[in-house]
Amino acid sequence: MIRARHARIVATLGPASRAPDQVLALARAGVDVFRLNFSHGTHEDHAAALAAVRAAEERIERPLAILADLQGPKFRLGDFQGGRALIGPGSRLRLDLDPALGDSSRVCMPHPELFAALGPGAQLLLDDGKVRLKILACGADYADTEVVQGDYLSDHKGVALPGAVIELSPLTPKDREDLAFALRIGADWVALSFVQRAADMAELRRLVEGRAAVLAKIEKPAALKELRPILDLCDGVMVARGDLGVEMDPEEVPVAQKVIVRAARHRGLPVIVATQMLESMIHAAVPTRAEASDVANAVYEGADAVMLSAETASGEFPLEAVTMMNRIIERVERDPNWPGLMDAEHAWAEEGEADALVAAARRAAESGPTACLVVYTTTGTTARRLARERPLQPVLALTDRPEIARRLGLVWGIEPRVADTPKGLDHLTQVAGLMAASLGLAEANGRIWILAGTPFGSPGAANLLRLTHAPALSKK
Fold first, then answer.
1. In a domain, 89, yes or no
2. Is the pTM here over 0.85, yes or no?
3. Structural domain ending residue among the three candidates 277, 304, 336
4. Are residues 206 and 329 in the same domain?
5. Whole-number mean pLDDT of the chain?
6. 248: which of 201, 255, 275, 406 lies 20 to 30 Å off by Cα?
7. Which of 145, 275, 377, 382 is the catalytic position?
């Protein structure tokens, strides 16, 4: 089952979509990567969802990736008398560690690490920014604040510190249990929430030990300040616009999105644009025009993937949401202006011999009618390098490792398949031509460029570019 598009679709599984027949329908409609959100559901729920994805993979005969999204730290207020209180603008509100029920003048904030990160003049956001506080004075166990923007607050509303670096690991005890479970059941990607610095990704990489690809969710402004060193330790990155939008002014989020997408593309890292992409389709069968434009803009930017969250996890129209996202991507990629707009962000830098060869493969494919490119890859690195060039021809990535094929399902324009390690140059050429032809990527005598590294089967840089032609398949 070949996708007639380059950008990929990530869909979150949940109560509305994780039954086996629903997963199969979503895969056929266009999902390339299924996200397991460990903020919700039990381990049993996620194990059943993963089994459904693997069953769907066999039915559609195409690798499907599993993204395990760890919850990360969550900071919340304590309880109020009567369950809520009105926090009026201009009033004073004290936050402390006292577990007594709160009221309109004080409430418990049971997180000593937050008090340690505060200082006079700093801002605190409560309930996704509905209530804004300014710190007047603070200590190790209290903060006296002025209410800049007020509203009702109820029990356990979230707390955010815009711009502050909080001294704690993004991996809570729950996350460590969830991570061990996700790796045990065979997740292909692991996403880390609450990334603030490169050391956070280093900690995740140490725990994963290569058993999955690792992805940083950029959802805190502090991470933008350390974006380059964070990306140096990533296999992929997500623009988590929902949480970014809590701690940043709304007009800053699109700028941050472009910065992250540009930086990821320059490194050849797959980048997902996420959150509220088709939000209205949680309860409506069609999206707003603004949402359709939002998805389209991410595709025009050259993002590897766009993501659905509640739309598929708990929404009323999960299949329709995936179908609509697929339609939007395909329409953008039919636009004659799309290649030029996407290529405006092309990373032209050639850092070494392998990068130069990959860039040469794209130029060779453009030099005359080319049916497709075929890349042999052991670790996925060469395939990701080729995707960085954003060739418009189909790219068939062949690997002898099923886990690598699945990880490549997130990468722009890559059609991953599992194939035996080539026994030699003639065998490599023959297999590439036969698979391209059998998958419908090349007609008889269609030109195919092959990119590979020798010795075959050993991780290393690409050092071979070869031209062949697709064979004519017997009609039986």
1. yes
2. yes
3. 336
4. yes
5. 94
6. 201
7. 275
- The CATH code of the domain that includes 89 is 2.40.33.10
28, 54, 74, 76: which is the annotated catalytic residue? 76
Closest CA to 196 of 169, 235, 157: 169
Q: Is 275 a catalytic residue?
A: yes
Name the band, by pLDDT with cuts 50, 70 and 90, for residue 455. confident
pLDDT, tens digit, 9 for 90 and up, residues 68-116: 999 999 999 999 999 999 999 999 999 999 999 999 999 999 999 999 9
Catalytic residue among 3, 62, 106, 217: 217
What residue numbers bound the domain in which 242 lies?
8-73+170-336
The pLDDT confidence band at residue 140, using thresholds 50, 70 and 90, is very high
Question: Residues 432, 386: one domain?
Answer: yes
Does residue 363 surpass a pLDDT of 80? yes
Active-site choice (3, 5, 8, 35): 35
Q: Which residues contact 89 (CB under 8 A, 6 or more apart)?
A: 147, 148, 149, 150
Residue 29 covered by a domain: yes
Domain presence at residue 138? yes
Does 35 participate in catalysis according to the annotation?
Answer: yes
CATH of the domain at 222: 3.20.20.60
Residue 439 placed within a domain = yes
